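Anyone up for a design puzzle?
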């Protein structure tokens, strides 16, 4: 398991389906609500996925997912005025 998967296993996401939306929660609190077309795509992807894949889907849907392409902000990324 990777560090990311360990964190998801320790504090997993959960989802509930209502008649017109999907609520994604973590730690008993609603993190995000998917409506309209987003919930249909999510449910279609989650239907054939195992638990680890569903956790990744929910992390991506909430925005709680580090993609690995973020850069640390440093002196190089800032413009300096002299």
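Challenge accepted. My sequence:
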């Amino acid at each position: 398991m990777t560090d990311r998967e360990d964190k998801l296993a320790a504090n997993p996401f959960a989802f509930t389906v209502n008649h017109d939306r999907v609520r994604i929660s973590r730690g008993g609190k609603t993190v995000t609500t998917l409506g309209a077309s987003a919930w249909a795509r999510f449910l279609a992807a989650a239907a054939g996925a195992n638990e680890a894949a569903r956790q990744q889907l929910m992390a991506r849907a909430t925005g709680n997912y580090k993609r690995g392409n973020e850069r640390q902000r440093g002196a190089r990324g800032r413009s300096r005025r002299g």
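A detail worth pointing out: The mean pLDDT is 78.
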